[in-house]
Amino acid sequence: MIDAPSDLRIRLSDVTLVRRVQHEHTMDLKRSIFRALRGLYEKPEERRVLDRVSLEVRHGERLGIVGPNGAGKSTLLKVMASILRPTSGSVFVHGVVAPLIEIGAGFDPDLSVVDNVILYGVLLGFNREAMAARMEAILEFAELEPYRYALVKTLSSGMLARLGFGVASDIQPDVLLIDEVLSVGDEHFRKKSRERIMGFWEQGIASVIVSHDLSLIAEACDRVVCMDAGRIGFIGSPRTAVRFYLDAVAEREGQSR
Amino acid sequence: MLERFLGVTFDRYVSLVAVLTGRYVKVRYRGSVLGIFWSVLNPLIMTTLYTLIFGKAFRGYYGSSVFDYLFAVFVGLVVMNYFSTATGQALHSIVVNGLLLNKMRVPFSVFPIATVISNSVQFVVGVIPLLVIIALVVAHNPLGIPFLIPPLIALALVTVGVSMFVAAAYVFFRDVPHIYELVTFAIFIATPVFYPIGIVDPRFRPLVQWSPLSLIVQQIRDVVVTHQLPPPTEILASLAWGIVIFVGGWAVFVRSSRRFMDYL
Fold first, then answer.
1. B contacts of A106 (beta carbons < 8 Å)
2. Under an 8 A CB cutoff, do A22 and B258 touch?
3. CA–CA distance, A212 with A190 (Å, rounded to integer)
4. Which residues in chain A have their CB less than 8 angstroms from residue B259's CB?
5. Which terminal CB of chain B, N or C, has fewer other CB atoms within 10 Å?
6. Residue A101: which H helix or E strand, with range?
7. Chain A within 8 Å of B102 (Cβ-Cβ)?
8. Running DSSP on this structure, what letter comes out for residue A152?
9. A20, A28, A29: best mutation site toward chain B, by most B Cβ within 10 Å?
């Protein structure tokens, strides 16, 4: 990345992702062998989930991603978080990335809250000592101090969401990746978590936000991408992108009628 | 080089494996002292059973001592138990964490590795002290104790290699657990655990004798039961098996892991 400007945070160049499509019979070794013996081998079916996507996000920018289910929004975010590796094209992400993607997937229900904070933090990429040092701040933010030794399986889903958000957001990131997590917990916690995100935005931390909440996207983002079957259908101002998306939905409904 | 292979820095890899190992050990034995001894209790019960049933018939092969038969069976069972439990758990380790792998960037291999290590902790704490005690008290073989190290290294290598292989296979084929259950049973029967190798048809005997787990069991028995030192050929053969299976398992895992996310 010789020519990367210093405020560049994310650059995707021609990112294409091809994934295999699973069928019941291909996931079964016994059946696969019998089919192969009968000469029925078939190449795995593939689907192009992302198709030559190029975009850049700089420091201070907030990029929204909208689009129908299956258009590749979350996939795009997972590529930015290096969870998925593109089939072709290049991904550049600068600095510490905070992926707030359906947080809570790393919890072990049979461990205590305290143990889970350490486990989850280490899975996210921090070391054990750093997590131990941040323990009190995290518990306080999640309002779970009285539950520190409770097993995570005994927490309510709202508490779990708070804990997940508390751990994942308690850092100083360079890049924030947000997938539908601004609506966790009750109204009180939602306000609190939004305030924390706003704090990051005031510092100008580059953010990418996936959401079906179009008013949130229109309000929070500088630029919005509308994904359409793995491609960038439109990229531009929030208002135009949202209109593009709504028009596309209306058109599709018109066709199916 | 190592970093490219592991997918993350070495430090991060170690802290991931450490935290996952701690989690597996903790969840399995939370609050129960009995838990850590389960790895001993189960083979003890099975040993009693085998000795009651086969002891009289097979003792002729063990210097007419039912006790030697008993200890030989115990050694065989703890090795087989470790191997089948660790690989059986590692088999599920990638698929079970599929959801997590879709949300976070974690190298795949930490899950099977942490599973094997957590089983090894149990083995080291529960089984190895017992083996040493038996070697000292029953076989009066203190000089042989260092010779427990090569077969145990070989056992760890074989277990990791097979674990990597089955964990990868299960990502692609969801009927692998059923097939592997059959395979572990076949391995158990094909290894002289509760029967003397002398009863095996001489045509197949070399095959049974030189199989990886059989070599490992045999060496530990030499030290622990029959106060001998294991023959160098057997030490080398088992280490060679260990390296081949370890490298082979990793190679399959690394090559196929590029496709894991399509199936998780």
1. 100, 103-104
2. no
3. 16
4. 20
5. N
6. strand A97-101
7. yes
8. G
9. A29
